[in-house]
From TrEMBL:
GO terms for biological process: carbohydrate catabolic process. This is Mandelate racemase/muconate lactonizing enzyme C-terminal domain-containing protein. Its cofactor is Mg(2+). It comes from marine metagenome. Keywords: Magnesium, Metal-binding. Pfam families: MR_MLE_C. One of its GO terms (molecular function) is hydro-lyase activity. Residues 41-138 form the Mandelate racemase/muconate lactonizing enzyme C-terminal domain.
Length: 277
C-alpha cells in the first residue's frame, strides 16, 4: 500500500515521532571454542573492543551457555572494557530455570545491567514472575510471542520491557495493538529485531511511530525512548540483500523516507541466497 500511495510505512501508521533511532548492538556471542575459557575470553575481549570503537550507544551480551560464574566473567570483562556507565544488557535466550536465572541476576547485581532478556522459557510464566520478583534488574522478553493474545499476561506481570518481533508477532497492525497494550501497563516497548535487512527496516518504521513511554518532555534512550536492535554478527541476509547499506551515524540509524519500506532489494544477492528444494 505504501508503494502504491507513494507514502512511507511510518506515515501510514500515523506518523513518525523521530527520523533517527538510536541503535544498540547485539554481539558477544559464543565462539566454537567456548569451552576453552582463556581462549574464549581473549576472543571476547577483542570483539568487545571492536564494538566499543563502532559508535554504538549500548551493547547486549549473550549469557546462558556456560556456568553462571564463567558467564559472569564474560560480563565482567565487557563491563570493564566499556566502563561503568555504558548501557549494557544481557540476553539468555531462555537458557535458564528460574533458580539459575536468579543466581545469574544476583551474580551481576553490581554491574549496572539495564535489562535481563529472556531469562527462562517463554512458556514458563511462573518462572518469569519468580525471576522478576527476586532480581534487581529489569526483565525483558516477548520475541517468541505471537499476536496480542500471547502478550497479554506477559505484559501484565512477567516483564518490565516488552519485545515483540514485528516479523513474528503479526505484522504492523498487530504490533500496534501490542504496543498499545504495553503503553496501557506503562511498560517500555523495545522491539526485537534479528535477521534480514527487510526486518531491520520494518522495525525502524515501527519504532519511529512509538511515542515516549512514559511521556515526558525529554527523550532518554532506554528509559522512555525506544531504540532499535542492530545485530553486529556477519549476516549477508541483513548486510547484502538491500541495495543500500545501513549507515550508523552518531549511534543512530535513519528512518527511511521512500514509499513503502523505502528500500530496494538487490535481485542478484537474492538469487545467490535463495535455496530451492
Amino acid at each position: 500500500m505504501g508503494k502504491s500511495l507513494g507514502r512511507p510505512i511510518h506515515a501510514l501508521l500515523g506518523g513518525a515521532f523521530r527520523n533517527k533511532i538510536k541503535a544498540y548492538g547485539t554481539g558477544c556471542y559464543y565462539p566454537d571454542f567456548f569451552t576453552d575459557t582463556p581462549k574464549m575470553l581473549q576472543a571476547l575481549e577483542s570483539e568487545a573492543q571492536k564494538l566499543k570503537d563502532s559508535g554504538l550507544t549500548a551493547i547486549k551480551v549473550k549469557v546462558g551457555l556456560l556456568p553462571v560464574e564463567t558467564d559472569g566473567q564474560r560480563v565482567d570483562l565487557v563491563r570493564e572494557i566499556f566502563g561503568p556507565d555504558f548501557p549494557l544488557m544481557i540476553d539468555a535466550n531462555h537458557a535458564y530455570t528460574a533458580t539459575t536465572a536468579i543466581r545469574m541476576g544476583q551474580r551481576l547485581r553490581d554491574k549496572q545491567i539495564l535489562w535481563f532478556e529472556e531469562p527462562v522459557t517463554p512458556e514458563d510464566r511462573a518462572g518469569y514472575r519468580q525471576v522478576r520478583a527476586a532480581v534487581d534488574i529489569p526483565i525483558a522478553g516477548g520475541e517468541c510471542e505471537f499476536t496480542r493474545y500471547g502478550f497479554r499476561d506477559l505484559i501484565e506481570d512477567c516483564v518490565d520491557i516488552v519485545q515483540p518481533d514485528l516479523c513474528c508477532a503479526g505484522g504492523f497492525t498487530e504490533w500496534q495493538k501490542i504496543s498499545a497494550m504495553a503503553s496501557t501497563f506503562n511498560k517500555l516497548i523495545l522491539p526485537h529485531v534479528w535477521g534480514s535487512g527487510i526486518a531491520v527496516t520494518a522495525a525502524l518504521h515501527a519504532i519511529a511511530t512509538i511515542p515516549l513511554s512514559p511521556h515526558t518532555a525529554n527523550p532518554i534512550a532506554l528509559q522512555n525512548e525506544p531504540m532499535v536492535e542492530f545485530d553486529r554478527t556477519p549476516n549477508p541476509i541483513r548486510d547484502d540483500l538491500l541495495q543500500t547499506e545501513f549507515q550508523l551515524a552518531n549511534g543512530c540509524l535513519s528512518v527511511p523516507t521512500g514509499p513503502g519500506l523505502g528500500i530496494d532489494i538487490n535481485e542478484n544477492v537474492l538469487q545467490r541466497l535463495t535455496v530451492r528444494h
